[in-house]
Specification:
about 110 residues, mainly alpha, DNA polymerase, domain 1, two-stranded parallel sheet, 2 strands, elongated
Length: about 110
């Protein structure tokens, strides 16, 4: 009985560690929206299978995304979703730069 509990706890701990390491590596390496599969896109926080498929279909129909901001052209992705996705995605292998905040830009010009 003790062995069974120990084995179960060990297995659960290993599963948690594996998931944590996968999430950390996913956060460390942005996903290229021009080359990612629907399943890779669906793994992004905030993107499910339907939006992932919409991204792929938009890319196939209209060509590669020129910038991360082009994701707003995909049905169902607005400003809020784009800002959530920005640190997770790229079009060239580099993390997307934060969008310029017009309020901040105007404040620095004064």
């Amino acid at each position: 009985m003790t062995r069974l509990i120990t084995a179960s706890l060990t297995g659960a701990l290993l599963a948690v560690l594996l998931l944590a390491s996968q999430r950390a590596s996913a956060e460390a390496a942005p996903v290229n929206i021009n080359t990612a599969s629907a399943s890779e896109l669906a793994a992004l926080q905030g993107i499910g299978p339907a939006k992932a498929q919409a991204i792929v279909e938009h890319r196939e129909k209209n060509g590669q995304f020129k910038s991360v901001d082009d994701l707003k052209l995909v049905h169902g992705i607005g400003d809020k979703m784009l800002e959530q996705l920005r640190p997770q995605v790229t079009v060239d292998g580099k993390p997307a730069a934060p969008a310029a905040n017009p309020a901040t830009a105007n404040a620095t010009k004064r």
